[in-house]
Amino acid sequence: MSRHDWESAAADWLEQLSVDSLRRARRVVRAIDATHVEVDGQTLVNFSSNDYLGLSHHTAVIAACCEAMRVHGAGAGAAPLVAGQTPLHAEAEARLAAWKQTESAVLLPSGYQANLAAIQTLANVAKRGGKSLRILMDKLCHASLIDAVRSSDSAFRVFPHNGMEKLQRLLAEGDTGQIQVVVTESIFSMDGDAAQLKALSLLKLQYSFLLMLDEAHSSGVYGSAGRGLADELGLNSLADVSIVTLSKAFGCGGGVVCGSQVFCDALVNSARAYIYSTATPPVIPGALLAGLSVMENEPELQSRLRESSKRIRDNLSRMRFQIPPGDSPIIAIILGDQNTALNAAEQLRAAGHLCIAIRPPTVAPNTSRLRITISARHTDAELDALLTSLRSLRM
Q: Is-catalytic flag, 248?
């Protein structure tokens, strides 16, 4: 296929996406503060950010980033195993491991890479040990987990979302010599509901398996000092491998794999996603350290976030909107087809709210939605205005 042929095929595909109201385009969004943005000259209240605690604009976090850049420079300059592991990186990893109550932690440039590196480690060690790896994954796991599992060449099965009975049958079917790994998120990114962690803890008493838990959307939101949903439920030791994503409640970027010393050492020695990537810029561990201090010393941010999330959820339920169960700051209003969701998003934008429509293939067909996310920094007046606008939607 020539370049011309390829670009012609791409153009046809993109045109069909436009016809189906599924084509995506990046918009330029200028952040004003933690909850306000400017889009095409219009100031909007941002209800589409994962910056749950507003740390992206917290003065302590910004100051820490500036100091990290002043002392360590703009970039790490090399992979961690070459010359990119600065004292700040090492301090941040140790501090986050202590916060997460694990033996060790490894910092990577993104949550996507963290998930990829963790799965690569599980698969590589199993292969070197002459064992087969079998992964059992929740149907609504994030794309980064799906891609990581598929690229690992490991056997895998997908169980229905939070389908513990099906998961139990799959675990029972596993061969004695297999290493079985259950992969799930604690709070699911598109529905905002929670994994059945207590049920998983009971299954662990009956079956031998490793649990990999992605706490991207529960870190900072649940648990003592924001340690996550497992901590809040008193299940800190449940997960064998935990993922913390820094681009959500931490307000910066990057991802961290948390686990035993042996697991993290194995990751450093086997995960291509870690070995062959330049270390994160020093501002990231700087922001991480400052973010941990804020979570530990300003618990009122988490309290405010949880209260505001409950308030919006309760009101939407009274308005008879279809929303998945839960109490997280991710609130999905299921509207059905993509045109309905796009129309609702435009009405909200006209009213001054940024609420992005989520369409297939990110979500299943006929489940297009408004994905509303709440921040601890949203004021009561802004929450009231959002509810007023939602009540007035014409669909």
A: yes
